Amino acid sequence: MTLPVFGRLPLSALLGLLIVTATAALFLFGPMLAPFGQEEVLGTPFADPSAGHLLGLDQNGRDMLSRLLYGARMSVGVSLAAVVISFCIGVPLGFLAALNGGWPDLIGARLIDVIMSIPVLISALVVLQALGSSLPVLIGTIALLDSTRVFRLSRVVAQGIVVMEYAEVARLRGEGLWWMLRREILPNALPPLMAEFGMRFCFTFLFVAGLSYLGLGVQPPFADWGGMVRDNQQGILYGLYAPLFPAGAIALVTIGVNLVVDWALAGRTTVQGENR
């Protein structure tokens, strides 16, 4: 996929890239940059910001900045792992269903429709209540639920590609299934899949934060931003800013990813129009 030249970056794209780059840096190095441990009690609850604690202390007297830095790895890592797994499941199955067609494709599509008719939150709550909220269960549950959406998009995109002339010519040449997937379908399906990856990450990121806020997401002793909002929400009653820091981080990352996805898609559309 061709992306726009960096010298022509609009302000929104530049802002989005800065946010995504900063988020990636926090994901990789956040715990190393944290001045204190994520469970280390350092003072009285909801202490005001100071030189030693730039964002103050939380409801248990732990350093808010340190917990934000630790939480970045957990919040982003869980969401990213779930999205990657969902694409590894949904994309191949969607492509195969579109290529093979017939009854397997029809039955699979109707089964996916039935699963998607159940609200995602309800499905996740039932599974997590039954199996617990360990990280493998949390990531696997979200990945499986998201893979249905990825399967549906991949199938529709691939169905539009397999009827094109170049795909028909490849079939007439006797090209095999793997060659068709690798050389014809995947390259032409990348733009919508990349856009869906960004949107899926935003949805999953907010979904994980919501589950943590409800107490079914990332569990202690791990810090994550959704859980930090829940733990510090009582501070709002006293005019404190403690719950606003993780909430602002969640909103900022979501906005940044959306800005980058919009820029990438707009740049590709512009380049395609110039080529025509």
UniProtKB/TrEMBL annotation:
Residues 72-261 form the ABC transmembrane type-1 domain. GO terms for biological process: transmembrane transport. Its main location: membrane. It is found in: Cell membrane. Keywords: Cell membrane, Membrane, Transmembrane, Transmembrane helix, Transport. GO terms for cellular component: plasma membrane. It is a multi-pass membrane protein. It comes from the Bacteria. The chain crosses the membrane at residues 6-29, 74-98, 118-145, 197-216, 236-261. CDD domains: TM_PBP2. Belongs to the binding-protein-dependent transport system permease family. This is ABC transporter permease. It comes from Paenirhodobacter hankyongi. The lineage of its organism: Bacteria, Pseudomonadati, Pseudomonadota, Alphaproteobacteria, Rhodobacterales.
